[in-house]
């Protein structure tokens, strides 16, 4: 069972590691797009979201306080979903559909992050194949 959970962590973390790299290496272009979408923070916001996604992903992947890493990912995705993928603001049908798909994907990823939080925090040190136990213990 430890291997299955490790594979799940790798697959879940991969999207956030890659996104973090994109945020950090293409921050100027992403900041222009974020400003166009009305997201606050400009380039700082792009870099900050890249850092939080990267730290959260590495935390989940390596099992270093994976519960906190999962919460960090969820907390990062919430404002991104509402600022960057506000499909309800789009008038063009294709743009609306594209943004709704991205919004729905993020909602699913938030759910996955919360599930990882619960798994890490509930299992504590019995998780296996992790570096540390949970920072928060739910039982």
Could you explain the architecture of this structure?
There is one protein chain. The chain is mainly alpha-helical and 139 residues long. The protein has one domain (2-127). Helix content is 76%, strand content 0%. It has 5 helices and no strands.
Q: Kindly give the count of domains.
A: 1
Kindly state the percentage of residues in helix: over 70%
Overall outline:
elongated
In round numbers, the mean pLDDT is: 93
Q: Count the E strands.
A: 0
Uncertain regions: pLDDT < 50 for 5+ in a row?
Answer: none
What order do the helices and strands follow?
Answer: HHHHH
Query: Termini, distance in Å?
Result: 20 Å
Helical run tally: 5
How much of the residues is beta strand, in percent? under 5%
Radius of gyration: 16 Å
Please give the largest β-sheet: none
Structural class: mainly alpha
Oligomer: single chain
Secondary-structure topology with pairs:
Blueprint lengths: L1 H24 L1 H11 L4 H21 L3 H19 L8 H31 L16
Overview in brief:
This protein is mainly α.
Can you tag this structure with a few keywords?
139 residues, elongated, mainly alpha
